[in-house]
Amino acid sequence: MSIALVTMSHSPLLEHNDPAPEVKAEVEAAFTAARGFVEEYDPTLVVSFAPDHYNGFFHDLMPPFCIGFAAVGVGDYGTTEGPLDVPAETAELLAEWVAERDLDIAISRRMEIDHGAVQPLEILFGGIDTVPTIPVFVNGVAKPFTRMARVRRLGEVIGSFLGTLTDERVLVVGSGGLSHDPPVPQWATATEEQRAMLLDGRHPTAAARDARQERVIQTGRDFAAGIAPIQDLAPEWDQALMKVLASGDLTPIDAMTPAEMAAEAGNSAHEVRTWVAAFAALGTAGPYRVGYEYYRPIKEYIAGFGVMTARTDG
After folding, report:
1. Pairing of the two strands 45-50 and 169-175
2. Sheet with 2-8, edge to edge strand ranges
3. Beta strands in the chain (DSSP E)
4. Burial class (CB in 10 A: 0-12, 13-18, 19+), 68
5. Which helix (H) or strand (E) holds 155?
6. Which site among 84, 146, 154, 248 is 20 to 30 Å from 272 CA-CA?
7. How many CB atoms lie within 10 A of CB 126?
8. What integer pLDDT is reported at residue 183 of this predicted model?
9. C-alpha span between 305 and 249 (Å, rounded)
C-alpha cells in the first residue's frame, strides 16, 4: 500500500472566465504538473474529499460527512454528467471502519456530485470513471460546521483504513477553496425563493440551472472589474494554511473556527476542510513531503487558487 496526494482549488468559472493569458498559462502549467505526478504514481484507487454547492446536498438533510457507495455527476457548468466507477464493497468497508472508530458518518447509495468533485477528476484523469473512486462529501457551505479537529480526525481515520489496502496505490484528492466568497445564498439572509432552492433544489430545469450559473459567471467578471459586492480574496491566509499543511503538523488547524474562517477568507473558505482531511489521511502513512506547489489569487475564478502534490518519504 502507498498513499499520494493532490489538493487543488476548483472553480466553475475555469471554462467561462479567462484571466490574463499569463495567469491562465500558469494555471494550466500547475494542472500539467499535477497530471504528471499522478501519471507517474499510477493510482489504482482514488479517495476524493470534496464539497457540494447545493447540487447534491441540501438543507433537507445536510450531514457533515458522507461516503458514497455509488455516485453520479450532475453535469453543472459543463462538467461531466454520469456515473463514477465507485468500488462499492470497499466504500462500505470504509464506512464501517469509520463508524467503528467513533466518527458518525452518513452514507449514500445514490450520491450526486457537482463540479467540486468532478472537476479534479476531469483534470487529473481526463474523465470521472477512469480510476475507481470513493467520493467523500465534506460539508463546506451550510451551518453548523463541525470542528476542524473533527475534520482532521476524519482524514486520519480514513487514512488508517487505506493503510490496510496492501495491494492498492491510493491517491487522496482534496478539492476546494481556498479563500473565496462566491454568491452562494446563506440561509439566514436568503429570500423565500432562495430558501426553496437551498432546502431541495435537486434536478432544476435547464433554464433554472443556466440562470443560476450565469449569475455566478457574471459575478466573476464583476469581481475582476472591482465592482462585485463580495468579500475579497485573502492570499496571506491561503498561503499560511498551505504552509501548515506542508509542515506535516496539522494540529494548529484545530484552533480555526467557522466564524473566523468566514470573516478572514470568505463564506466558502470552509471548503479547505477537504484539504485538511486529505493531508491528514496522507500523514497516517508516515512523514510526507510536498513535491509541487502553486498559488495565485485569481479574481476571474473567484478563488485563491492553489495546487499541491505530496507523497510520503517512503
Report:
1. parallel
2. 106-108, 65-68, 133-138, 45-50, 169-175, 2-8, 303-312, 288-298
3. 2-8, 45-50, 65-68, 71-74, 81-83, 106-108, 111-113, 133-138, 169-175, 288-298, 303-312
4. buried
5. helix 148-162
6. 84
7. 10
8. 86
9. 22
DSSP 8-state code for residue 252 = G
Q: Where are the domains of the chain?
A: 2-312
d(CA 164, CA 120): 25
CATH 3.40.830.10 fits 2-312, yes or no: yes
Is 16 an active-site residue? no
One of 10, 16, 53, 115 is an active-site residue; which one? Answer: 115
Q: What is the mean pLDDT of each run of 10 residues along the chain (314 residues)?
A: 93 91 96 97 97 95 97 94 97 98 96 96 96 98 95 98 95 95 90 94 91 91 92 96 97 96 94 98 95 96 96 79
Is residue 181 within 8 A of residue 14, CB to CB? The reply is: no
pLDDT number for residue 314: 60
Confidence (pTM): 0.95
Q: Which residues does residue 148 pair with via DSSP β-bridges, in sequence order?
A: none
Measured between alpha carbons, how far is residue 126 from residues 32, 35, 111, 254 in Å? 12, 10, 21, 35
> What does the pLDDT look like over 32-85, one tens digit per residue?
999 999 999 999 999 999 999 999 999 999 999 999 999 999 999 999 999 999
In the set 53, 180, 203, 270, the catalytic residue is: 180
Of the candidates 149, 167, 156, the residue with the CA atom closest to the CA atom of residue 284: 156
Question: Is 115 considered catalytic here?
Answer: yes
